[in-house]
Amino acid sequence: MRGKIILVLTVVMILVTASVVFAQDKPLTGKTLKMIMIADPFVGAFEKINAKFEEITGAKVVMDSYPYDATHEKELISLAAGTGDYDVIVYDIPWVGEFVEGGFVEDLEPYIAKEDPKVMAMEDYFPVGLEAGKWKGKVYGLPFGLYFVLTHYRKDLFDAAGVTAPKTLQEMKDRAKLFTNNPNFPGVFGISMNFKRGAPVGQGWFEYIWNFGGKYFKGVYPGSTTEDWTPTFDTKEGVDVVKYFKEMLQYAPPGALNYAWDEKAMALQQGKVTMMSEWTVRTPMMWDEKLSKVLGKIDTTVFPAGADGKTAPPVGGWVMGIANSSKSKDVAWEFIKWFCSPEIHKEFCKMGGPASRFSAVNDPELMKAYPWYKTIAETAPLTFVDCRPRIPESFEIIDVVGLKLSEALQDQITPEQAMKDIQGYVTILMQKGGYLK
Amino acid sequence: MQKRLSKTGLILILPSIIYLFFLSLYPTIYTVFLSSKEFNLARPHKSVFVGIGNFIRLFQDDLFRRSLLNTLVIAVFSIVLELIFGYIVAEVFDKRLKGMEALRTIYMLPMMVTPVVWGLVWVYIFNPNFGLANYIFEKVGLGFQPWFASGGTAILSLILVNIWQWTPFTAIIFLAGLSGIPNDIYDAANVDGAKWYQLIFSVKLPALKQMAMVTILIRLMDNLRLFDLVYSTTQGGPGSSTETMSFFIYRHGFKFFNLGYSSTAAILVLVFIILVSQYLIRLFYQGGEIGE
Q: How many CB atoms lie within 10 A of CB A290?
């Protein structure tokens, strides 16, 4: 009997000790971390990595994801109300100015300063990404999800037609034309692009304007040293982009006027088109063994240059910051620090997340698995952080460009009128914002 | 006695007054206040008083004018067709055939589900590439239709979905009206040798007139603030072809957070709805008197 009691007591002691050790191993037990982001294809990778964070720390991670416009809406309303609904905010690069100027997100400099530089490995991020998460010289977001626009094309069909990947915008148009209604290539169209009203086609204009030799503000361009916010939308180059889009619409599948990012990528994935220029977050869709109908037939190349050979391929993506209204800023920082570390970033990339660090894009294992990493490495040094505006008015500017382009694409107005209307609208907006005297 | 009663009355209606004040009156007054300001939720510290500046901007705004036109087109076409189809459906359901009751319940289903859900369903049906609508159209030789993906067809598609969802509403009201016509009148008409069309135009339609007017009024107010269907299908596009007044307010209010400007549009829409419905109510009331 006595022996039994000793045995029971021993077991109880072991269990109690184990649970204490267990609890110490999981320092965030009982805490909840709430995060909000876009419902982009990286959500699946997030879910898996968040589960790992829960396992290691004991914290509970609650994640909400929404379509593009809805993400902006939900984030801004929640942050402006200051209710602390979210701790970690995943926000788009063009919204950085708006969120920082509104006082919605934390300055991350003090957090970074306290950490071991090796853990943060800031120099390992693509410089353009680091710049994208900064506002007035301070870091507000870590660029865990940097996207680059790569041109994706059907290598099998290009080889069969005896043509090379497009290096210039003109070549891109020629290729699109070649594959449309071509009896040798039945059932495919030349290209899929963002033509849908609002942010999809609006952002499209900003992606192409640089290689057409234009710009959107007088003093905003790579290497600019002046600060001049005079809008320059209604220039010849600006109109040329709209005309180019109109021409390209003829080489896109029927119904393309409603194509946004997902529809565009699905058209290539399902073998309906021969080409698209799209953010790297959707590149893995073409290599998806279950869903891709073009498995092993796709190759990538750098976004086509303008007539003069100059190029500034689009760069974008998502940064991760802490909500000012968060009640668990320490937990939020623990997550961000851990999630963005080079080791976890590699895991994230393995699961299809976009490569945002040099260590990832040069990792032999990842390079072998993801053939498009070589194009990212080629693209990254050519990019310009302000290829789309990042000022507080950006969302409205991009949406207005998207509305007017959409009107022009279906002949409600001329391309010239579209750019004139945008110029007028943005000028008033900039005057109100105090940018113009 | 009189005094005590009114006191009790006051206490009884107090909850409603408080409710109305906080949820209706105060927001309306605040909206009027906001309309006089240039106010952005993301940059509240930069807000300035602009007086009637927002109203001037609104009257010059091409997109607002377009949204007004689109809203009216959707409202007029939807209501007229809903009335016609609603009457036809009510006539069919009024025939007390076997299985009609079950059919009637099924027919009412579209109305029971929120328009956002139907919007998403119809986006799939109208998908130009793999949607059911084009599959059927191509099978029967009607060819490819862009549906929501072209300016011309997008507004027609919206009207179609709108009619599909709300015809059951007019049908159910007309059915109630038809059931209310006494058999004596039909008997009298038969004795007088009335033809079927005389029965419709001289007996049934006059009897349904008041109901039709109420239906028009309700559906007009619904359509003038049409938002959910547009939000879940076209988002106002392509171009500005399906921009409605409510979507215009939403775009400025919740995409750009220009609450000042969007409040201005909201007030204008409110005034417009009040004027139109008051005009219609008077018209119907006079019509009723003349009819009697």
A: 5
CB distance A412–B258 less than 8 Å?
Answer: no
For residues A230 and B290, the model is more confident at: A230
Are A403 and B128 an interchain contact pair (Cβ–Cβ within 8 Å)? no
Query: What's the CA gap between A38 and A70, in Å, rounded?
Result: 8
In a domain, B42, yes or no: no
Give pTM, 2 decimals: 0.89
How far out from the chain centre does Cα A268 lie? 19
Quick one: pLDDT at residue A3? Answer: 66
State the Cα–Cα distance between residues B161 and B244, nearest whole angstrom.
15
Which region among A24-33, A124-133, A181-190 has the lowest average model confidence (pLDDT)? A24-33
Question: How many domains does chain B divide into?
Answer: 2
What mean pLDDT, rounded, does chain B reach? 90
- Contact map slice: B 23-62 vs A, CB within 8 A: 38, 41-44, 46, 62
Cβ atoms of B177 and B208 closer than 8 Å: yes
CATH code for the domain defined by A25-146+316-378: 3.40.190.10
Q: Which of A73, A406, A410 sits opposite B255 (nearest CB)?
A: A73
Within 8 A of B124 by CB-CB distance, chain A residues are none
Nearest CA in chain A to B236: A197
The per-residue pLDDT for B156 is 96
Q: Are residue B190 and residue B240 in the same domain, yes or no?
A: yes
Q: Answer yes or no: is pLDDT of B1 > 50.
A: no
Decide the pairing of beta strands A275-279 and A134-135: unpaired
Q: How far is CA B7 from CA A245, B1, B14, B17, B21, in A?
A: 70, 10, 10, 14, 19
Give me the residue from A272, A406, A421 closest to B237, CB to CB: A406
Inform me whether the pLDDT recorded for B290 exceeds 50.
no
Domain with CATH 3.40.190.10 in chain A: 25-146+316-378, 148-315+385-432
Interface of A with B (CB under 8 A): 69, 72-73, 76-77, 80, 98, 101-102, 196-198, 253-258, 272, 392, 395-396, 399, 403, 406-410, 412, 421, 432-434
- Scan residues 187-226 of B and list those with Cβ closer than 8 Å to A: none
Is B120 in the A-facing interface, judged by CB distances under 8 Å? no
Query: Contacts of residue B44 in chain A, CB cutoff 8 Å?
Result: 80
Model confidence at A244, in pLDDT bands (50, 70, 90)? very high
Asked if the C-beta of B150 comes within 8 angstroms of chain A's C-beta atoms, the answer is yes
Report if residue B12 sits inside a domain: yes
A76, A361 Cβ separation under 8 angstroms: no
Band of pLDDT at residue B61, cut at 50, 70 and 90: very high
Q: Mean pLDDT across the stretch A7-13?
A: 63
Average pLDDT over residues A190-216: 96
pLDDT digits (tens, 9 = 90+) for A262-283: 999 999 999 999 999 999 999 9
Residue-wise pLDDT for A305-315, tens only, equals 998 888 999 99
Residue B218 contacts by C-beta under 8 Å, 6 or more apart in sequence?
none
Domain encompassing residue B108: 60-245+262-291
Give contacts of A98 with chain B, Cβ < 8 Å: 42
- What is the Cα–Cα distance from B158 to A35, expressed in whole angstroms? 35
Q: Which residues of B touch A406 (CB under 8 A)?
A: 237-240
Whether residue A76 is predicted with pLDDT greater than 80 in this model: the reply is yes
Chain A: give the shortest CA distance to residue B148, in Å. Answer: 8
Q: Quote the tokens at residue A5.
A: 């009691």
A186 burial via Cβ count (<10 Å: 0-12, 13-18, 19+): exposed
Weakest mean pLDDT among A57-66, B106-115, B281-290:
B281-290
